[in-house]
Amino acid sequence: MAPKIKDVAKRAGVSVTTVSRVLNDEKYVKDDLKARVRRAIDELGYTPSHIARSLVRKKTNLLGVIVPDITSSFYSTILSNIEKTASLNGYNLIVCNIIEDIDKEYKYLQVFKEMRVEGIIIMHEKLNDEIRELIGKLDIPIIFSSVKPVDQSFISVIIDDYHAAYDATQYLIQLGHERIGFIGGDMRDMTSGQNRYVGYTQAFQDSGLEIEEEYIFFGDYKPQSGYNVMKEMLKCEPRPSAVFAVSDDMAVGAMNCIHDHGLSVPEDISVIGFDGSQLTDLVRPRLTSMEQPIDEMGKVTVDTLLDLISDEPKGAQEDVILKHKLVERNSCQPYKNRTKV
Amino acid sequence: MAPKIKDVAKRAGVSVTTVSRVLNDEKYVKDDLKARVRRAIDELGYTPSHIARSLVRKKTNLLGVIVPDITSSFYSTILSNIEKTASLNGYNLIVCNIIEDIDKEYKYLQVFKEMRVEGIIIMHEKLNDEIRELIGKLDIPIIFSSVKPVDQSFISVIIDDYHAAYDATQYLIQLGHERIGFIGGDMRDMTSGQNRYVGYTQAFQDSGLEIEEEYIFFGDYKPQSGYNVMKEMLKCEPRPSAVFAVSDDMAVGAMNCIHDHGLSVPEDISVIGFDGSQLTDLVRPRLTSMEQPIDEMGKVTVDTLLDLISDEPKGAQEDVILKHKLVERNSCQPYKNRTKV
DNA sequence: CTGAAAGCGCTTACAG
DNA sequence: CTGAAAGCGCTTACAG
Questions:
Q1: Exposed end of chain A (fewer CB within 10 Å): N or C?
Q2: Which nucleotide C1' is nearest A29 CA?
């Protein structure tokens, strides 16, 4: 068995209280005793039990994180920054990866409670009633990152989806496009899907353009759905001259579909994505995207949550809105420069 | 404060022992008592403390995982499967994301020990002496996943890198290529970099071909390094007609570099990757790759580790070698079909 | 079938 | 400056 504090005390010839004191770096321990304890610790290879400590201190330094899909470049980047910031603040992460399996989320929320995590970060885009209820009575600070439930009762770190989508659409309109396809996300549960859709339509109205229902589609944020939906869109007559997808993954799927049909981006169809994931630089042409401050988002999420956890929170109990930014790469071009087909 | 077992006992009018018994689903509790306890639990919203349980049971159901970069499609896919398998077996994950910061690994290993995780999974490609020593005296079952340290002392779940690289190179040779560029990985610490390099050179020798040193480069497995290295390779006269990169990420970087120089894959240069990450299907042309069984790898890693942890391990204490598989997509073509430049 | 008591490995008043 | 004792929230022999 691993040595315990008692073993250290015995070996150093002091009380466990004293060992505990040098462990916790308290003053009021004579130097020679301190040295003896330190030596005993080294010789025994003693490491204090976080379990026992947590029990008495009533503090676990644990954060629970729920990710919809760790494999997604967008979420994994946020997670990476969450981990980094948490680690910097002495917190460790219990990570739950939902993959379609919403029951798992419920189960993990229970686990989080059992483990007495000090705070919970949720990035999932779906939320059923059962989970909503559980979250409500969990009595653990919860924060949503990059997503916002339609309920007003939870705090989110998020961008202004409406304006981001509005700006992305305006960008395409400014380039001279009038037939702009839209690949949206889920319209239930989370506000992002709705707000981005409204941003798209509002930009059309403000520009005096007609909204063509046949150019509007919805996917699930993943590449394959962008591909499938684009396939349908290409059947339209005339086909759109530009496409706005509300995730980079779907935008890449759309680009690939366009490519596989013998057409070119941006010569035949301009494509703009959303998120600012690593993919934007890995595909050709590079993908122009309405970017979220992904790195900052992970950091701010943890900072805000830690504030919520602390005894006297400084921040107001409200959403944190981060700035979006359009990053131009090579997937969009003015309508006029379009090559004849 | 959250209710404790004592509160439940009081409310149900029984002893804490009895509550504990129904919590742990033991027999020997009369139905009516059981019902009373259940009700009290519901009414109080009681959730047992995993901390307290761990302390007395001497079992944490925790696994520590060290990932070099959660953001990489390859590692995040393995991690996703690790999480899935662990969860299925009632284990939770503490995740550490190293990013260049090797000190963090040392620190986390300490944390893992403090938290009394039952097992550790390491996917990092580097290992300094300090960490090696710490690992040696940690007294916690450790398993390496997808990487294998040069020391023989640790167990790995891995493919046969030598043969995989050999087969990949042979594939190119069979297609008629003779000038095959190589983008390798780190040759220190881990065996993968070395074995893949040797597989490449051996395939040349067995085919009676000359190895051209100027076509051999090394990167760090990430896209950017593939890009940079390819840039150098394109300066060779004559330039290679095919390239083998030992990671899909580097292969994609190389493809992008080729594209940015006005050349085409596979018409001008064939490219084959390694890993079988999601990227292979997201780029155009789709990337042919020597694939590792990524999904299986995560599962097998956890299964093997759990066996190691158990009281009577069934498996032998040795590496688990998984099968590699060449998956042809569209990034390679026979040398003869090459279009004239 | 049920409960009182000891103990898991620590920290923290309290006393000296 | 140092130590004996209580207690964190559970489980598990042990006795009945």
A1: N
A2: D1
Tokens of B274: 């390694």
How many domains, chain B?
A: 3
Q: Tell me which of A54, A76, A297 to substitute to probe the interface with B (most B C-beta atoms closer than 10 Å).
A: A76
**Disruptive mutation site among A4, A55, A56, A97 for chain B (greatest number of B CBs within 10 Å):** A97
A329 contacts chain B (CB < 8 A): no
Answer whether A59 touches B (CB < 8 Å). Answer: no
Q: What pTM did the predictor assign? A: 0.93
Residue A110 DSSP symbol: H
| Chain segment B61-95, per-residue pLDDT in tens | 999 999 999 999 999 999 999 999 999 999 999 99
CATH of the domain at A33: 1.10.260.40
> CB neighbours of A174 closer than 8 A, spacing ≥ 6?
none
Cα–Cα distance for residue pair A258/B45, rounded to 1 Å: 54
**What pLDDT does residue B187 have?**
85
Residue ranges making up the domain that contains B140: 62-159+294-322
- Please give the DSSP secondary-structure letter assigned to residue A115: T
Last residue of a domain, one of B19, B41, B57: B57
Instruction: Write out pLDDT tens, residues A241-284.
Output: 999 999 999 999 999 999 999 999 999 999 999 999 999 999 99
